[in-house]
Write a structure and sequence with these properties.
228 residues, alpha+beta, four-stranded antiparallel β-sheet, 9 helices, 13% strand, globular, binds cobalamin, binds iron/sulfur cluster
């Protein structure tokens, strides 16, 4: 089994469907943070594949100080694309006779703790897609935070990638734009409750029906978008 070749093939499948970033990391020490639904049953799956699909600049540029219907529709479409990619990767790995578990792109399991099955951001960070930004999101060199993520857990021994040695530097753009004042210079100070309150408000008052906002994504376009 040529693992480099399989990895390239999985990358290519993801690219063909709109993904721009792909990486692999070890997750054993993260398992204790997983939701009980997958904590035990994923025991043999010691690797994670992280895939990132960028959000379109043309859509992001229509956001002012709150989410709009274009962003809502784009958000839902990109979630579908991510779920399809994770499914396709999993089918291909199963064909190799190995196990693979696709996780949903966006599904909250615990509304009190605001957690899902696992953290796509932490896995993407470990797989070298980007770094933890001041806005509490995964920031990539190419697309800033304007990227959505999905994870596939597997026992296929794919070669690992290394975390990126990079950070926000002196940038503070997202601090100034957040309508909830949730973002601070020190990422540890990120106010998740304030953000949740604001996205819940948007969900009701702006008729979004989803816990979305997008303002801190607009503020963080990355190199490719900055250069146009
Ligand atoms: C619940 C949830 C929310 C909640 C709470 C968010 C939160 N917990 O921070 C609410 C509804 C408020 C929310 C809001 C938003 N969300 Co949201 N959300 C999720 C969801 C579904 C689950 C998060 C989760 O379970 N985490 C589990 C806990 C255990 O993990 P964690 O919070 O990431 O915690 C880890 C880190 O804190 C890490 N850690 C702690 N300290 C440190 C320090 C360092 C240095 C490092 C490296 C790590 C680290 O360790 C923890 C365990 O691994 C994820 C999808 C997913 N499955 O990941 C999307 C997700 C995080 N959301 C996303 C987005 C884009 C948004 C919004 C912009 C809304 C929107 N779509 O318009 C806002 C932005 C909020 C923000 N600035 O953080 C994207 C982020 C993409 C990216 N580029 O990072 C995700 C990944 C969805 C996706 N498929 O792409 N979200
Ligand atoms: S999603 Fe909106 S409210 Fe939450 S941190 Fe980003 S800009 Fe602030
Ligand atoms: S806007 Fe600037 S400070 Fe905020 S997350 Fe992006 S790079 Fe970091």
């Amino acid at each position: 089994m040529n693992l480099e070749k399989i990895k390239d093939n999985l990358k290519e499948i993801s690219r063909a469907r709109g993904a721009a970033l792909f990486g692999v990391c070890r997750i054993d020490d993260l398992r204790r943070t997983f939701h009980p639904e997958i904590r035990e049953t994923t025991g043999g799956l010691d690797r994670a594949i992280s895939v990132g699909v960028p959000l379109l600049e043309a859509v992001m540029e229509t956001i002012c100080d709150r989410p709009n219907m274009l962003y809502r529709s784009h958000y839902l479409q990109v979630n579908n694309i991510l779920n399809d990619i994770a499914f396709e990767i999993s089918v291909l790995i199963a064909k190799e006779g190995r196990r693979a578990l696709p996780l949903p792109a966006s599904h909250i399991m615990d509304y009190e703790k605001l957690t899902a099955h696992l953290s796509h951001r932490e896995i993407a960070f470990r797989a070298g897609l980007g770094w933890w930004g001041r806005n509490n999101l995964l920031v990539t060199r190419q697309f800033g935070s304007r990227i959505r993520l999905v994870t596939v857990l597997t026992d296929l021994d794919l070669p690992f990638d290394e975390p990126l040695d990079d950070n926000c530097g002196g940038c503070m753009e997202c601090l100034y734009s957040c309508p909830a004042g949730a973002i601070h210079e020190d990422r540890e100070m990120f106010d998740r409750a304030a953000c949740f309150k604001k996205v819940s408000e948007f969900s009701r008052t702006a008729n979004m029906g989803h816990l979305i906002c997008g303002v801190c994504l607009k503020a963080c376009p990355g190199q490719i978008n900055r250069q146009g």
